[in-house]
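hey so u asked for the seq, here:
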Amino acid sequence: MYQIKTYNKISAVGLDLLDKEKYTVSDSAEAPVGAIVRSAALHEEKFAPSLIAIARAGAGTNNIPTDRCSEEGIVVFNTPGANANAVKELVIAGLFLSSRKIVSAIEWAKDLKGNGDAVGKLVEKGKSAFAGPEILGKKLGVIGLGAIGVLVANAACDLGMEVYGYDPYLSLQNAWNLSHNVIRATDMKDIFTNCDYISLHIPLNANTKGTINEKTLASMKDGVRILNFARDGLVNSADMIAALESGKVASYVVDFPTDEMIGVDGVVCIPHLGASTPESEDNCAVMAAEELMDYIENGNITHSVNLPDASMPRSANMRICVIHRNIPNMITSVTSVLANDNVNIENLLNKSKGDYAYTMLDVNECDAASVSAHIGAVEGIIRVRVI
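ran it, structure tokens below
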């Protein structure tokens, strides 16, 4: 039986896909071969030697020590696109929240309680304080055209906005899905200088941290409205607060509240609701379970963040899966080991990603323990499995 460890409550729709005759699922599994996590922080977690894969039921993997996982031969999956529609819908809501002062207006209206028949007159007298522009005809800049960014850009086009999109790494699939009405920006500066609204949809890393800062804010239109449903660290909090106080930024809608931002005039803090829909949680759990099963049972890798995607149909009785460093002569070394063990290779696939590579070899028969030991002894090999 394969043990799967859960670190958060995972939708039963996904977990039910795991064949109960092959898998046991528990949050206390002692020798898990796979794990599914949502938001639990795993950086201090000591992983069992049996663990070969972690599936993040969501897109971001900041809560997983991916570098350490690579060194330990643990494949880290995410579920891109599974929560895209849920986030897109909240971003569209954020556009209206940023424009029409809806949140502050609702809070103000609550204070009218107890005024009896005078409420109507008080509403008419006070509502002008919450006036805001329509989004129709305004310019929206979408930075990052992944699964979510494409949906946001397309929806904004449908709402009558003039949409600019920036993504130097736009995939072919996302390019096909993107509306032809979206104007391609060749540089983020095009978005900063032209757009009335800016929505962030990029990952947080060393290159993107503080993308919105004093310098980039200065290049934007006065009264710009910024939406951040990606990651908190993309925006420098101190610089954003200063821009709000000066009027440079009219509104900042963020799905990642911090102590600095809560209560600041012009900031709408949403408590990380982007993917908080039952549909999204089901979709993520289903994709995570399918990724784990395919890797555990077939060695196929789909949507990995730390290792290359690699998939091939079975062509023999046994499959040898090798995670290794991306250095010269590794394939020669592995195939030489198999030749010395009199193992004939029926099919082979090798893929690399950065410093790491993955090789699958289909063979009709071999001594699994012996082959694993001999390949594992080769310098640069990280993990060997025979399925």
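The first strand starts at residue 2 and ends at 6. The mean pLDDT is 97.
lmk if thats what u needed
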